[in-house]
Amino acid sequence: MTQKQDIHGTDWDYLIILDACRYDYFRDNYEGFLEGDLKKVKSRGSATPEWLWNTFDGRRYNYNYISANPYINGQGLSLGDLVSGQDRDWSAADKFTNIVDSWIHDWDEEINTVRPEDFRKTAEENLDGSKTIIHFIQPHRPFISLGETDFDWAPKNKLEDEEESTLRKILDTTRPIWNPLFELTPYRFQTKVKEILGLGNNYEKLAREQGEEQVKQYYTEDLRLALEQVEKLVEQLEGKIIVTSDHGELLGEGGWGHSIGRKEKELVEVPWLEVKGAVDD
User: Fold this and answer.
1) Global pTM?
2) Cα 237 from Cα 253, distance rounded (Å)
């Protein structure tokens, strides 16, 4: 069964999303924080936008969506507005009954993300009794455990109308011409080109400078930071709780990070944990 089938075919009350969380790393770390029945499911996307338009592709959903990720926003911008080269009119504001933009209220400019403890508090304050999706941004970069300060959140920049570079504007305009061929090249080549042009988030450069094992440790530490807050959140929730992810992350298996349209198991195999010990209604 795919994750999409589980989401729409399971009678859950709370769906907790850990952004960019791989199944194997979750499996190896969750037991210190949560109890439950864990299985591996296949995501319908290898990046958040792809997961959204493939998973929530039908009617309007009577869900309360509390989000630390700017792709899920109540500002009315579509994924086509936020994702370069994608002609998509999918908009969270059109799909979900209510959206809480934690990424606006809780954004920490010092570390350029939403701290998991701040997000948990916002989630607890915005429970309205309806089915609720609670979308943590960790273990997605920037790594809090590293203290990254220069990670570029492109969708947030666009939502805030920040000026794009001339080079990025040219590339975005001409993307339909060059992108089909570019996507056929090896992932490491794509990453290197983006690094040379000053685009992207230099994941591979970080791995070279810090060492691959150290980057994996940062990822693990940020996952555990999120799990610590999920544990506290679960104590406040009543009903059936699922913990899952939108997509995984490449950590040196042919590349680093994630992007739309990829099929590696590290990107599409995600956890599905039915939490035990949650208080019943």
Assistant:
1) 0.86
2) 37
